[in-house]
Amino acid sequence: MSGNMGANIRRERKQRGWSQARLAREVCRVAGVQGEPVGRQEVSRWETGKRTPREWLSSIAAALGVPVDVLTGPQAPAEPPLPTLADYLPAGDPLAPLSARTGRRIGMEQVDDLRQRVHGLRLADDVLAGGDLIRPALRELRSAVKLYRESSHSGEVGRELLRQIGELGQIAGWIASDAGKYSEAEQIYRLGLSAARQAEDHTLAANLAGALAYQLSNTGREVEGNQLARAALDVAGTDAPAKARALYLDRVAWAHTKAGEIQPAIRALGEAGEALSQDSKGSEAPAYLYWVDSGELQVMEARVYTELRRPLRAVPLLRDVLSRYDATHTRELALYLSWLAVALSDANEPEEAVTVAERVISLSADVASERTGERVRIVLARLEEFHDIPDVRALLDGAA
Q1: Residues of 74-106 as b/e, b for ≥16 C-beta within 10 angstroms?
Q2: pLDDT tens digit sequence for 303-352
Q3: CA 13 to CA 17: how far, in whole Å?
Q4: Which listed site, 88, 134, 272, 358, has its alpha carbon 20 to 30 Å from 57?
């Protein structure tokens, strides 16, 4: 039993991308204890079966957002693994051209075709989740790398190919992260970053670095995320397009928020708004920033205020965004609603939070996204403090 329990705890922890230290902190937080009596070494003992967490079991389950019997039952059979980057790319430096190129000579026509497929993958990500898209995303990345390595082309065409590999690295990394494959996502982001640097595209390099910083901030590596978000902004430079600077400042704001740095976070939000205000119809921005607008900045502002537990600021912002949000973007709709549910809980409006939480759970049910799954767990954990309220109790019991 203890062996199964340890394996189950380890499985649930890894599915969330948490370190053992992160799980220890979450268990202490849920249990409401001071001084962190549970540490990383204790979690390691549980997972290896050296110690059975009898008195901590309910707190572990609550921290992970699962019923106790998920941890105490037989070890679940492993699901077929999602593909990894190594399954698709050659060993060593995948961007190193072959010494004897056997492929045909290509030109901008092939680059334009690749550009359209990359953009199509981005549009697909608007309506599909990471678990659905990771295979086609990695196939596209493999094809692009193969084209660059094996074909002959001019220097200009080579730079454009590298740029598209960088863009593919960003969207494929985002898709892998959404599927909960955080280690794979980091490798993909770094591959894309290498391509962007070789192409000397500083704006794209900053986009990749910022995307990786966002993942680090959300998976217990807040210090690294903060440092990388600031570095991404510096890489972009003051001459970057207005939309790009606005996005990278938004990521800086979130990194400061996750690191608990309130004033720098709010200051970065203001700077992001100022940057976007400089965007105009005549100004040029990379196509991959098509989704960056005032609404997205408003969402980030609301998320920052929710994370800082300032619901009176967060709730009106979220209601405004959600009143005009595209309902076909199911994953994002579920994510934004989850922030509203948390903010309503913090505003001491549990009945209204339950109504929103029910919609979050319904929307998330058929979405192959680890992000939505994590947000559902967070919403349910936040509602636990209102367990005595009938509507809340019914929701929690139903979710369990």
Answers
A1: eeeeeeeebbbbeebbeeeebbeeeeeeeeeeb
A2: 999 999 999 999 999 999 999 888 888 999 999 999 999 999 999 999 99
A3: 7
A4: 358
